[in-house]
Design a protein that fits this description.
The protein is mostly helical. It contains four helices and no strands. The structure holds zinc ion (ZN).
């Protein structure tokens, strides 16, 4: 991926799906009455929206192509920070919700990290490295919550 516009198109798609999914996870935690984890997911959704806003602002002076499903640079028909829709139909426990959110952050990191490693465009590399570093922080924070959950669970 050597075009800033193409990178931004992917980042915008990835982050808007991530924000939506994290919002859904927050909603399901609310349903189960876990307001602490709900608030945490809302905060994570806010991070995704901040990434989205950063990518959109950058795209303001870049030509961003429309991405068709078949042209997306990730393979499985789902963006890296999203998660399989059917997974959400299972009974949503706190553990499972945290695990799904972590998988989303890890896939997002893997996507940005891969772009950073293979791109020949210095601007794309700088952006991808910046986004990858933030996804690492998100994943680390989720791992802390998962560890804490494991300690406090009955
Ligand atoms: Zn993230």
């Amino acid at each position: 991926m050597n075009d800033v516009g193409e990178f931004l198109a992917h980042a915008i798609r990835l982050e808007s799906e991530a924000a939506a999914r994290l919002g859904e996870l927050a909603d399901s935690m609310k349903t189960y009455g876990n307001l602490e984890v709900e608030a945490f997911f809302r905060k994570m959704a806010g991070f995704a929206r901040m990434h989205l806003a950063a990518a959109r602002a950058r795209a303001g002076w870049t030509k961003v192509p429309e991405l068709e499903e078949s042209r997306m640079a990730w393979a499985e028909g789902d963006s890296p920070e999203g998660m399989a829709g059917e997974a959400q139909h299972y009974l949503m426990t706190v553990d499972y919700a945290l695990k799904l959110a972590l998988e989303g952050e890890e896939r997002a990191f893997a996507f940005y990290d891969q772009v950073a490693k293979v791109t020949e465009d210095p601007e794309v590399r700088a952006l991808a490295e910046e986004f990858a570093a933030e996804e690492t922080e998100h994943a680390d924070e989720l791992r802390r919550w998962i560890a804490r959950q494991a300690e406090t669970a009955p």
